Amino acid sequence: MSLLTNVMDHSLDDGYAEAAARKEAAGHGGLPKTLRAKLGLAAGLVLAALVVTVGAAQARVAAPVVAKEREELIDRIDRETTAADELEETVDELRADVSARQREALKTTGGDQAELVGILAGAVEVHGPGVKLVVNDAKEAGTDGDGDPRGATGFTDTGRVRDRDMQRVVNGLWESGAEAVSINGQRLTALSAIRAAGDAILVDNKPLVPPYTVLAVGDGERLSTRFQDSADGLYLHALQENFGIRTSISVQEDLRLPAAPSVIVRTAQPNTEKTEKGTS
After folding, report:
1. pLDDT tens digits along 235-257
2. What pTM was computed for the model?
3. CA pair distance 35, 241, nearest whole angstrom
4. Which burial class, exposed, middle or buried, applies to 234 when counting CB atoms under 10 A from its CB (0-12, 13-18, 19+)?
């Protein structure tokens, strides 16, 4: 009976009783591990929700400031664009005025040769028979071929018309007898430059876009034949055959070419020595 009484009074082992007492003293109160994990996850979710809420609130507060700055930037861009357009219009007006004054001066001081000088210098509008040459990029620019007429240039996109191609075209037309030449309505003079700026072709610093329409005043049939048989005409033909660059040339009965925007001589001076000797 004493053994049964002892078991009933001390059903929990002394070691387990001491461990339970230590946990209770440490504040772990005997909560199950799964319950503690769930409570920790819930606390984390609450913290994350709090962070998101605070961030959204801050974003709502900052949104009007960002929108205001964006509107101010757009307004500034619009103002600067308008100012640039006005300056460009002023430049065009001044250029036209300078060209008109140059033509007037040429008429009053050039004598009997004034009109001829104006035509050759590109200072006056001209018309007459000639040829129309259209040069355009390949349909699929970048294709390669054998016998590159450009040589080692470093350009991988061989289906694109380049500034050096247009230089050869224009020089070939001059050499074949052209008396006046324009590209996309831009009159060329002895001081004109055809250059590249990235992938764009510039004529006297004005960008052109393909297709490039070249008008050349001269003896139409003869000019067309001489150009196509020249080295530059054969060069253009090689570009067409090897790289798919599209070209067409036709004889025209009457072409009209505008005057150059301005003809400015910076270095050359008239020779007045002979005139002074004749009047002395």
Report:
1. 999 999 999 999 999 999 999 99
2. 0.56
3. 81
4. middle
